[in-house]
Design brief:
By secondary structure, the protein is mainly beta. It has one helix spanning 137-140; strands at 11-19, 25-27, 40-43, 49-55, 60-62, 71-74, 77-86, 93-103, 105-106, 115-125. The relative contact order is 0.32.
Length: 146
């Protein structure tokens, strides 16, 4: 989370930080070719939180021997953001959401089978008069939520 907690009836920003192993890449969320498996973050909505949007970084075009066109991929450190909306009457407390990060890792010669990483997100909701403290600003400055 971008802050240590959230308030009812306000936005909550989440981030998934994925580290792609050296020598490998994962496909952009909007892959260059139809048959490529996209990187995808799914956050399950709940009675307390609605998913407004998921924000992906722009991929880097890389040319591989097996393709005539450069492919848009992610390499190294990748940050995907999710913007949630807390319900108007959500009481203070701690809530858990389920999410899934799906990707397919490839190198210059072959692709590994597609993978899904299950995620659990814990969100603390506090009364409106409790100030929120920023957390992980270096991660969240890499996401363009607007």
């Amino acid at each position: 989370m971008a802050t240590d907690a959230g308030h009812a009836n306000s936005a909550v920003k989440l981030a998934v930080l994925a580290q792609v192993a050296a020598g490998y890449h994962i496909n952009d969320h909007k892959p260059s070719l139809d048959y490529l498996i996209p990187t995808d973050l799914k956050v399950d909505p709940s009675d307390q939180f609605a998913v407004k949007t998921v924000v992906y970084p722009k991929g880097t075009p890389v040319r591989f021997a097996f393709s005539d066109v450069p492919l848009s991929v992610y390499e190294g450190s990748v940050v995907v953001g999710a913007l949630l909306q807390t319900g108007k009457a959500v009481p203070a407390g701690t809530y858990t959401l389920k999410a899934k990060f799906a990707y397919q890792a490839c190198n210059d010669h072959a692709c590994l089978p597609p993978a899904n990483v299950p995620l659990t997100v814990t969100i603390k909701v506090v009364p409106r008069n409790v100030p929120l403290k920023p957390v992980e600003p270096d991660v969240f400055q890499r996401i363009k939520f607007e």
